[in-house]
């Protein structure tokens, strides 16, 4: 038998719905309160940071003003000290003069002599009519005064010194062999040397031999292998290869498959009809011929 479930009465349903609504409203109210509280905390934090920033700027401004005031005060003090020192110097001089008043001398007294410093020079004494000035040491040689020359632009280094003869201009004569110019007294000696060296042929310096000295390449340089001309490989059938290349390009443009090409430089093996280049073909042909000439081995099975 099947068990029957009693349906929930309508009053109970209404009560449950009202309770659920009440719970939802309480949750929404709590969420709104939490959001308001968080927003308030964020606003307080922003205000606190702004106040701290303003406080730091104010402290920085005050320090700068104090530093400027100190600098200005020092400048004022220095200016005042300079002004005081300027005002005191003439007063000191005047006071020193007033402290030692001059005494008038009588006719019989002579003024005291003052010691001169190193920088000062003794004053010149006037001579009376009867006195004669002391004779100075006179030199016997007469110094010749420079006379103004008629031509202002004169090379003083080109003029001969006193006691020297004027140098004659050097006359250069060209050499008949090399064409270089020499003095007349040196030309004969140069000509003899030039005749000897003109007929000799200078040996050409071989840089390759010097560079290869002490290496394995020196043996090839000594035999002259590096000077031998190597034969360039001759290209055969270049016209045919060029035409085939043009055909391949045309086929690639039109999208058609290109026909198979044959290399004209390859040779065909008469035994297996395979194609090789000249070096590999010569190596392959005897081996291929010998291999095909061998008799096949018969393998017999025991019954």
How would you describe this structure to a colleague?
This protein is mainly α. The chain contains six helices and four strands. It has helices at residues 10-99, 184-199, 207-212, 218-223, 238-254, 278-293; strands spanning 172-174, 181-183, 267-268, 275-276. It is flat. The mean pLDDT is 78.
List the helices and strands and how they pair.
Layout: H1 10-99, E1 172-174, E2 181-183, H2 184-199, H3 207-212, H4 218-223, H5 238-254, E3 267-268, E4 275-276, H6 278-293
Antiparallel strand pairs: 1-2, 3-4
Termini Cα gap: 85 Å
Q: Output the structural class.
A: mainly alpha
- Shape category: flat
Q: Could you tell me the radius of gyration in angstroms?
A: 63 Å
Strand order of the largest sheet: 1-2
Oligomer: single chain
N-to-C SSE string, H for helix and E for strand: HEEHHHHEEH
List keywords for this structure.
single chain; 303 residues; two-stranded antiparallel ribbon; two-stranded antiparallel sheet; 6 helices; 50% helix
Quick summary:
By secondary structure, this protein is mainly alpha-helical. The chain has helices at residues 10-99, 184-199, 207-212, 218-223, 238-254, 278-293; strands at residues 172-174, 181-183, 267-268, 275-276.
């Amino acid at each position: 038998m099947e068990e029957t479930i009693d349906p929930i009465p309508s009053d109970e349903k209404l009560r449950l719905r009202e309770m659920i609504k009440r719970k939802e409203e309480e949750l929404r109210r709590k969420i709104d309160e939490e959001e308001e509280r968080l927003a308030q905390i964020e606003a307080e934090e922003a205000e606190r940071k702004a106040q701290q920033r303003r406080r730091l700027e104010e402290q920085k401004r005050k320090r700068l003003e104090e530093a400027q005031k100190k600098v200005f005060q020092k400048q004022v003090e220095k200016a005042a000290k300079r002004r005081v020192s300027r005002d005191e110097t003439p007063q000191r001089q005047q006071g020193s003069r007033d402290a030692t008043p001059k005494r008038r001398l009588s006719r019989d007294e002579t003024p005291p002599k003052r010691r001169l410093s190193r920088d000062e020079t003794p004053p010149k004494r006037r001579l009376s009519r009867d006195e004669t000035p002391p004779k100075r040491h006179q030199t016997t040689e007469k110094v010749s005064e420079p006379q103004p020359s008629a031509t202002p632009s004169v090379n003083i280094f080109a003029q001969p010194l006193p006691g020297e003869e004027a140098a004659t201009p050097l006359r250069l004569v060209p050499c008949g062999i090399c064409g270089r110019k020499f003095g007349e007294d040196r030309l004969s000696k140069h000509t003899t040397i030039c005749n000897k060296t003109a007929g000799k042929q200078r040996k050409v310096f071989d840089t390759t031999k010097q560079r290869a000295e002490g290496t394995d390449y020196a043996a090839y340089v000594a035999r002259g292998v590096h000077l031998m001309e190597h034969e360039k490989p001759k290209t055969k059938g270049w016209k045919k290869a060029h035409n085939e290349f043009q055909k391949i390009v045309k086929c690639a443009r039109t999208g058609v498959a290109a026909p198979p090409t044959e290399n004209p430089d390859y040779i065909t093996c008469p035994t297996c009809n395979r194609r090789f280049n000249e070096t590999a073909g010569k190596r392959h042909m005897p081996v291929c011929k010998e291999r095909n000439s061998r008799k096949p081995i018969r393998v017999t099975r025991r019954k």
